[in-house]
């Protein structure tokens, strides 16, 4: 069946009227509540599966609005698809240019052709019958919404996920859908929903959401109801296969893995040898947990097996195997079933789900990574149950965009303008002091690349490097003549050497064998700011590019710092400061080179915001509000700032609201930059759907 318009379904509330249909009452017995909910399930399933008279594939769509509605996208998106990707749209010969029509059958065929991996034409006869069949991809949702965190029920017949249901600006909520059935919204009004999963008997859904000052684990009945707090200051709750234990990550300065019996027994802390634990997944038999972590920052994150009996954790080497095969591994939330671990990795064909087999005895990675999803799209959030793999597939369109700004007011005007094209990842924008040259990192079909772009002419050049070196994190010098970048040398210990190359001459020099992090920006032509990497609470360092000397600049005992940006006059540093488990906040601190900046000197700017960047005159600070959620951003705000005394304006001004193209804040290094007459963004169309395939 082809794409269809998303339908938003919410369970009926007490006191609602529906022409004689049974209603939920506050004093209903549990048995009657289940009967009422089952009745509504039948009504909703029937209403969502009714088809219009005649064959809908033969009916015609007679406007851009109808075409966009059928495909579940915006009008501008489908118009772009017609121009650039061959979307079959026809025009009436006798009518004006805007009169268009399309066949549902042609649109469906076009859509399916984009979803299939390329394959050679089938031959005839016995050879054709003997050829292995490609696993069938099944589209579960049809909302083309901002969708995250899919998870399958124990029988693989239901999927739970986080979505904004295609409503731009709405905070994504938790949704439940039977495979082949209708979508049901489980939560309402929650913030930063993430990591939903089913209980062992599929009667409840656990999820993580923002509380007053931290993130908590909540539970909600599968057929709807009120969320109940399960664990405070915790995330990634997962019930064991037998339902007798709950594993979760306790939020703190050092996140820890906890397991507690569901009957209220004694809680235990596991894997105390590991730090920066990102997630936990149960084995099929419930005897082990799979976590993403490392023993210390000198070792790259990887998948570790943690025995439930408290034994020594085992490093699988799954992610290291992926890195050795040229993948940029996106660590959070791998899935595990049998002898296979599934994770998201970026390679030459895009961002895809990969499978790595492991030894049943030692859990060590065996063989090479196997791609599981088609190229040309983004695939995230794998979940696997009973040999079925679910994931979120989104359109692969992350590029550089800009919007013109008024030089006097700093306010934008006019439409967004695309600067680059093509599938891949774009990140880590830095601009020269005169605003004429931009450097950024990109992943495309040819792998990771460092780009330098002339913003006046639009010309783009790649910086060549040593073959086989995984380069990234570019930072352009104030003069625009030199580019600093780091690389990753596998360990242990992992080393991150720091290089400086001449953009015009091409000479490259090693500054340090290990800078401990990633270059973020130049303070002047001789000094670099480094953001340390691989620990929950990190710091900013200063490196002298002449002699490689390194010294501390700024750190905090209880907060993670990131996304630093210096003011144009070099006197102030704006950055993110995030409590473990909390929303990011923006702070400004005086910038000193001779001694570390103390936390008491910080100036609080705004909570629930991040990714600061300065106006050209330094009198204003732009930033991204954590809206609609912490993973994607659509609102740009600004506050006035007096650089002479370090005073910030009380009120924020809304600068820009993004619609279809949004900032993918879950990707590191997506803070915008300001050139003399424009703001440059990393933007992507991250609307997508949940898909399933057999593995």
How would you describe this protein?
This protein has 695 residues and is mainly beta. Among the domains are: 51-113, Arc Repressor Mutant, subunit A (Orthogonal Bundle); 316-396; 398-688, Neuraminidase, CATH 2.120.10.30. The protein is 9% helix and 45% strand. It contains six helices and 54 strands. Strands 4, 5, 6, 7, 8, 25, 26 and 54 form an eight-stranded antiparallel β-sheet that branches. The protein is globular, with a radius of gyration of 26 Å. The two termini are 22 Å apart.
At a glance:
With 695 residues, this protein is mainly beta. Helices cover 9% and strands 45% of the residues. It is globular.
Shape: globular
Question: How large is the share of residues in beta strands?
Answer: 35-45%
CATH superfamily of the domain at 398-688: TolB, C-terminal domain
State mean pLDDT (0 to 100 scale): 83
**CATH architecture name of the domain at 398-688:** 6 Propeller
Low-confidence stretches: 1-58, 93-97, 116-132
Q: So how many helices?
A: 6
Q: Would you count the extended β strands for me?
A: 54
Task: Name a few traits of the molecule.
695 residues; mainly beta; eight-stranded antiparallel beta sheet; 9% helix; disordered N terminus
Please render the helix and strand layout as text.
Blueprint: H1 30-49, E1 60-61, H2 64-71, H3 75-85, E2 90-91, E3 100-103, H4 104-115, H5 125-130, E4 138-139, E5 145-152, E6 158-163, E7 173-178, E8 183-185, E9 194-198, E10 204-210, E11 215-221, E12 228-231, E13 234-239, E14 245-250, E15 256-261, E16 268-270, E17 280-282, E18 288-293, E19 302-307, E20 314-315, H6 318-324, E21 328-337, E22 340-347, E23 350-358, E24 365-371, E25 377-385, E26 388-395, E27 398-405, E28 412-418, E29 425-431, E30 437-444, E31 447-454, E32 460-462, E33 470-476, E34 482-488, E35 498-502, E36 508-512, E37 517-524, E38 527-532, E39 539-544, E40 550-555, E41 560-566, E42 572-578, E43 584-590, E44 603-607, E45 609-614, E46 620-625, E47 632-633, E48 635-642, E49 647-648, E50 653-657, E51 663-664, E52 673-675, E53 678-684, E54 687-694
Antiparallel strand pairs: 1-3, 2-3, 4-54, 5-6, 5-54, 6-7, 7-8, 9-10, 10-11, 11-12, 13-14, 14-15, 15-16, 17-18, 18-19, 19-20, 21-22, 22-23, 23-24, 25-26, 26-54, 27-28, 27-53, 29-30, 30-31, 31-32, 33-34, 34-35, 35-36, 37-38, 38-39, 39-40, 41-42, 42-43, 43-44, 45-46, 46-48, 47-51, 48-49, 48-50, ...
